Amino acid sequence: MDHFLYRDGALFAEDVPVAEIAAQVGTPFYCYSTATFERHFRLFDEALEGTDHLVCYAMKAASNQAILKTLAALGAGMDVVSGGEYARAKAAGVPGDRIVFSGVGKTREEIHTALTGGIRQFNVESEPEMEVINAVALELGVKAPITVRVNPDVDAKTHAKIATGKSENKFGIPISRAREVYAHAASLPGLEVIGIDVHIGSQLTQLEPFRLAYQKVAELTETLRADGHDIRRLDLGGGLGIPYERSNDAPPLPVEYGAMVKETLGHLNCEIEIEPGRLIAGNAGIMVSKVIYVKEGEDRQFMIIDGAMNDLIRPAMYEAHHDIIPVVEATPGEEPTTYDIVGPVCESGDTFAKGRTMAEVKPDDLVAFRSAGAYGAVMASEYNTRPLIPEVLVHGDQFAVIRRRPTFEEVINRDTIPEWL
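Given the sequence above, the corresponding structure tokens read:
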């Protein structure tokens, strides 16, 4: 569910007409709904009710500080994967003991920053990383809390580029080597081993891959405890998908996921961490764009819009689907039209949809890309010297620009000309 609905034929974001935002901000832009963020976070929090748990929002989905503050106010922790994300979380007022640091390539500088600024835990991905964390912790005279990310070799049945739990993926250590890796971790004086981490992928639409992975984690927990390790926290990652196509069957609900977590892991009396990103942010945002031209091709019509692949790269990168709807609802009985929907970037890959049937549009009409809140603005670039597009947050009948569009001059003036030129 989201809070982008038609009223009297006009698309609203909560209680604000989307066309009104477009008139003031210009297009294209991202628009987020506070109420949707809050609702989706609470669904996860309530799904784990009765367990000792923390919902850590995966910041890589959407990391504007206004979003982070919105979620932190509800008690969310943060899952970060870079020093920049760590800095964003701290700038948004999130305390270190609610920040989990994940990712396969943590640098010595990032580890130092987190240990001095406060960290809930590092989710360790390899033995070389473990050695570096130990060394930095000893230099600082502290103990670094860690979990070890195990790779359970479970097929998440998702897109190959966002699967993370199979043996050929770069993430974690093979679960078959967990005992020796944990024994090594326990021998390092700068580390405090507190738990196990697992994450098998993103945009999962079935519970069974989670269940298989968590059953392996449950068995590993018992084994490691028998070896003398104090396993008291299980970080289960994120990955629960959203329905990008409204016609498709909906993925499992958070309450169903929570019940499965309790069923597979509840007997272990561990604190549970989960790290949802897409399901919290995805349907909380839309991208709004304006039609520039409708072009007649030899065997098709092209809808050319002012949004491009640099603004929303998911279709070009993942062949991802987004429902695209008019901001002014079609008149009942109006004959639909079929378009290839494309942007202005000089790449054939700058295509959002092929053969998409929808209401007829004309130049200057507005269209909205649904389910664009996750992996939209955060993956944008300035390719073709196209400035990053604004982000707007709606709260009831109010809206605010939470990241403005830079001018061409600001973009160009970031370049530095060498003295010999």
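Residues 4-31+282-412 form a domain with the Lyase, Ornithine Decarboxylase; Chain A, domain 1 fold (CATH 2.40.37.10). Try to locate this feature in the token string yourself.
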